Amino acid sequence: MLRKSVVACQTRPCAVRVGSAARSVVALVLMATLAGCGSVGMRDEMISQPGRPLVDKSLTAPKSDPEHERIVASYGGLYDDPAAAQAVARAVGRLVAASDDPAQSYRITILNSQAINAFALPSGNLYVTRGLLALADDTSEVAAVIAHEMAHVTTRHAAARARRAEAASEVNRVVANVMQDQDAQRLALASTQLSLARFSQVQELEADAIGIRTLAKAGFDPFASSRFLSSMARFADYRTMRGSAAAASRNPDFLSSHPSTPERIAFAVRAAREIGAPGIGEQEKDQYLLGLDGMVFGDDPTEGFVRGRAFLHKGLGIQFTVPQGYVLENTTKAVLGTDQTGTAMRFDGVALPPETSLVDYLGTGWVNGLETASIKESHVGEFPTAVATARADGWIFQIGLLRKGQTVFRFIFAAQEGQANLETALAESMANFRKLTPEESARLRPLHLRVIRVKAGDTIEHLAEQMTGVDRKIELFRILNGLGSNDAPEVGRLVKIVSDS
User: Fold this and answer.
1) C-beta of residue 362 within 8 angstroms of C-beta of residue 388
2) Of 19, 15, 45, 22, whose CA–CA distance to 407 is shortest?
3) What whole-number distance in Å separates Cα of residue 284 and Cα of residue 137?
4) Do the Cβ atoms of 264 and 425 come closer than 8 Å?
């Protein structure tokens, strides 16, 4: 997960954050209770070598930028796929020539992350994730995202936002020091924050408008932007198990750095219609999709696999299952989970010397609000365990430790006080923890995108049934291929499926 930095909008995702509300609870609340825990993450090589860097050689040599290596490490390293790189480079070349500043140089890096994300640095370093490339349905959709990011660079949005943020920080300092009325102080601070957020939203819509204009000038379909924004929104709902009714009822977040997705889609459609009617511009669908054939989909194999409610890691030789209703997400640092009630879960591992007991480790200060009287030791099969309760800032945490050799795996469940029975969720997850058998390890394979051509007689159901390793196959098939609820793929069209073969 990329931490935000002072270069503002350019280092923040300029795409829909999949499950953003749920993940905010996980990331902020769980990490707040862990005081310098030193997690080694879910890459098996990091368990034995905690200091090993994740940065590999760059897909294209980046312009000098101190942010680059941190970004690459945060997103799981680089994704080396010549076909995907060629597709992106082809789009960038056309966009640069059509942009407001053709003299600006860019370097593209494809990040090895399933997140749907793209962003740019003021230096001209552009980043797209393989997850974004997998979701896009043609070259014009990728070009729409890149054109948006290039617009942030050419309009110098980072510098403008940095100046605004510096001014807002000074206002906040003065308000805090001068105003004695606490209610008035809070109102003034909130007003400053809202002003800064709205400033970012204006930047986003400006980048959308410039990007769509550049897209059309480069000969691409200007409606690609609205299509891809729609696909991202649908994929976000798929990942968080929300139906259309729930999605429609969501309140917009006015303090978000981005306008709400419906607003952006409507804006993108209007901007495209000012250029021409649907059907203009190139999409380059077949050429793009053929370049995706074989791309890794979902989890990086080195970080383990999420299969429904189960997490399996071939390198570590472990698996566990979370309770019904939880949705898991695998990241470079941990496995995160949430349920519909807002309960959050985190699973990770740390190297621990054998002479340090689990009880002693709990007391080393990495847990805020630990209730020492709640600590209990036991076993799950052959694995020694310890569980404990912690409370902080209106939240309750159930923490479970499980030792396997010199690695301690940590389950952490969090909810607001009185909201959920975390002990049951923790106990069920730990009880399901076990080693993978050799046969299970042999069968565990990464998911890939496979591109096939629709034949006469193929139905949505038949095509979706060919997918493996994913839930709600028909829904995912429609999203990956940009098909609405009543659309059917025409004979001869290339479509994406997900398969572990």
Assistant:
1) yes
2) 45
3) 9
4) no
In DSSP notation, 21-74 reads: HHHHIIIIIIHHHBSS-----S-HHHHH-TT-------SSPPPS-THHHHHHHH
Token pair 């897909």: residue = 59
* Whole-number average pLDDT of the chain: 78
Alpha helices in 77-181 (DSSP H): 82-98, 130-135, 139-154, 157-178
CA-to-CA distance for 484 and 42, rounded, in angstroms?
36
Query: What is the CA 3 to chain-centroid distance, rounded?
Result: 12
Three-state secondary structure call for residue 122? coil
Half-sphere exposure of 271 (CA within 13 A, CB side): 26
| Sheet (strand 296-297) strand order | 296-297, 447-453, 494-499
Do residues 131 and 116 make contact, with C-beta atoms less than 8 angstroms apart?
A: yes
Q: What is the pTM of this model?
A: 0.71
- Report the side by side order of strands in the sheet with 118-120: 107-111, 125-129, 118-120
pLDDT in tens, 340-351: 888 899 999 999
Q: What is d(CA 479, CA 53) in angstroms, rounded to the nearest whole number?
A: 35
Contacts of 94 (CB under 8 A, 6+ apart): 143, 218, 219, 220
